[in-house]
Amino acid sequence: MMSTVVSAPPQAVVPVAGSSDVFPVRRIYCIGRNYAAHAREMGGAPDREPPFFFCKPADAVYPLGAEEAQDWPYPSMTADLHHEIELVAAIGAGGRDIVVEAALDHVWGYGVGLDMTRRDLQAQMKAQGRSWEVGKAFDHAAPISALRPASTIGHPKAGAIWLDVNGERRQSGDLADMIWSVAEAVAELSRYFLLAPGDLLMTGTPAGVGAVRRGDVLRGGVEGVGEIALTVR
Fold it and tell me: Percentage of the chain with pLDDT > 70?
């Protein structure tokens, strides 16, 4: 019998809406600048260039409900923490070199997520030509709502995506505005990585990203998918 030499870490999971079941998280992939207006506000071109991806660790997941805002801890080492509301696609069937026409067959369901970003640290890394991990991959950097299966809600290709901070609308867009659709993003991602059940793909954020402070209440959602709410502590 083999045993671990230290305590095995707990499995990161996201709840399934309306069920006691959970979705076990293997990896979290993120696509950058997938809405033209956000690409412009970040100083990039809104062209349909090949998408680029980055990762967050599985245990960065911070499961949240849609009703009462749950506390979420403000991270260390930053004075410029930003919100980015996103549609999250949950992979249920793995594969490599998936064709676009079959990509949605690999998606089990969807949720609402926040790609929380230590923007000052990200900017420092960009200026130095270094990777973004300290800006994107910190503890609790991926608050995510309960997932809803595609068998119930289908595969959303259009619909409002939004985020309010303290009741004021900050981000507003439509899934139809994505430069790369979910199917295209999954297919492209599978060219670089062998996708597997348990992977999550955060599909990009619309314009309007900005700073949040301790005490702020964030509430956002994706039409037909769900909502997410948290209080920054």
Answer: 96
